[in-house]
């Protein structure tokens, strides 16, 4: 094994696996109720081994919520999110956001449950608001193009769309037999085509 920063220490506990375990413990005990000692016990390593990767528990939180946020913002930079009619771009953003949520479920769940009790959380909430604002602008653009109904506020439409997407954290569990593509397809059908039989 090499001695690079991501691979030093007990085998199997690089920064990525450390983050996965930290997020799991944060979900179980709450961020404030989790100590570095708790994490070390769960990992079966010393606290100093954790400090090799990160300087603090707060940095673990920052890296975890940034992982979710970076994945969501990356969706907005994809070619299908930047080119073409606004309604098609919005459809792509919603579909891909569902896929990000499924792929990064523990990290997105943590992001959606923070309340702004620390600087890291307030920064994450500010980035979430920025993402929501950008999606709201896309909704407004689709309305302006005549692709969406005009009698609903774009910001409200955006919140409702992503309320549906974000609700997945409450019920979706991997290995339930639904693929992320099937979930994304269903969400976009309901969001863009409605439930009425045609």
Core attributes:
DNA-binding transcription factor activity; transcription regulation; Homeodomain-like_sf; Tetracycline Repressor, domain 2; mainly alpha; KstR2_TetR_C; transcription; Arc Repressor Mutant, subunit A
Task: Describe the protein's architecture and organization.
With 198 residues, the chain is mostly helical. It has helices spanning 15-29, 36-43, 47-53, 57-77, 79-82, 86-103, 105-113, 119-144, 154-166, 168-171, 180-193. The protein has 2 domains: 15-55, Homeodomain-like (Arc Repressor Mutant, subunit A); 61-193, Tetracycline Repressor, domain 2 (Orthogonal Bundle). The longest helix has 26 residues, at 119-144. The protein is elongated. The N and C termini lie far apart (60 Å). The model is unreliable at 1-12 (pLDDT under 50).
């Amino acid at each position: 094994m090499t001695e690079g920063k991501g691979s030093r220490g007990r085998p199997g506990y690089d920064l990525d696996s450390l983050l996965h375990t930290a997020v799991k413990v944060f979900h179980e005990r709450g961020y404030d109720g989790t100590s570095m000692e708790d994490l070390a016990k769960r990992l079966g390593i010393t606290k100093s081994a954790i400090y090799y990767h990160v300087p603090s528990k707060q940095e673990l939180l920052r890296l975890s919520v940034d992982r979710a946020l970076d994945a969501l913002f990356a969706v907005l930079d994809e070619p299908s999110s930047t080119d073409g009619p606004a309604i098609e771009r919005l459809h792509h953003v919603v579909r891909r956001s569902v896929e990000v949520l499924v792929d990064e479920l523990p990290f997105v769940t943590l992001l959606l449950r923070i309340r702004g009790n620390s600087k890291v959380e307030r920064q994450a909430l500010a980035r979430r608001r920025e993402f929501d604002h950008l999606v709201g602008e896309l909704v407004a653009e689709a309305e302006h193009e005549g692709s969406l109904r005009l009698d609903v506020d774009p910001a409200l439409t955006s919140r409702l769309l992503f309320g549906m997407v974000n609700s997945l954290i409450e019920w979706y569990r991997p290995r339930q037999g639904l693929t992320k593509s099937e979930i994304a397809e269903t969400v976009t059908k309901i969001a863009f085509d409605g439930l009425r039989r045609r």
